[in-house]
Amino acid sequence: MPLSFCLLVNVSGRGFLDRDDFLRIPELAINPLGDRIVDAFFTETDDTEQKINFREFIRVLAHFRPLNKGKENTVNSRDEKLKFAFTMYDLNKNGYITRDEFKVILNMMVGANITPEQLDSIADRTITEADLDNDGKISFDEFCRVSFSFQILSRYFFQYFYSCLYSSNGQHWFNAG
């Protein structure tokens, strides 16, 4: 069992984690995508109180593991990873990624390193290339169809999020050992 999960749960004695518990993790608190990462832990829960147990915690972490080419229905299969990545970009959860949504996430990831004009150009080009039906937005189906074309972006996306799970001293934030 990940030590940090145990420590966070045992400190409170509650047996679950809520949003505030995640925000106490320094790497998430200072991460520009920290809120999106924390949101990912609560998207599949039916709990209106926004708390997760250990099983739910581990299920979300599985999205960050290397691709499982074995069982088709595993949490870290290609399809599940694509669904997870899509939800990170679909900020308003309407089933589409708009240029503005893509630009927000892109800005969070690399905004300080590129000019606003470059950011606009990347967002425009990405939406244009991925929008197969020319409706100005990317559906999940389009996202999946063009995922091979954007392997570098996909790889960067998962590497970036995976790196968010490590502290500066190389330890997992979810495993202090």
Query: Count the strands?
Result: 4
Outline: globular
Unreliable stretches covering 5 or more consecutive residues: 166-177
User: How many structural domains are formed by the residues?
Assistant: 1
**CATH fold node name:** Recoverin, domain 1
Distance between the termini: 11 Å
What portion of residues belong to β-strands?
A: 5-15%
- Rg, rounded, reads 17 Å
Spatial strand sequence of the major β-sheet: 1-2
Order of helices and strands: HEHHHEHHEHHEHH
Tally of separate helices: 10
Explained architecture:
InterPro entries: Calcineurin_B_homologous, EF-hand-dom_pair, EF_Hand_1_Ca_BS, EF_hand_dom. One of its GO terms (biological process) is protein transport. Residues 77-112, 118-153 form the EF-hand domain. It holds the Pfam family EF-hand_7. This is Calcineurin B homologous protein 1. The structure is a single chain. This protein has 177 residues and is mostly helical. The chain has one domain: Orthogonal Bundle (Recoverin, domain 1). The protein has ten helices and four strands. The chain has helices at residues 3-12, 19-23, 26-29, 34-42, 54-61, 78-89, 99-110, 116-130, 140-145, 151-163; strands spanning 17-18, 51-52, 96-98, 137-139. It has a two-stranded antiparallel ribbon with strand order 1-2. The chain is globular. It starts with a helix and ends in a 14-residue tail after the last helix. Residues 166-177 have low confidence and may be disordered.
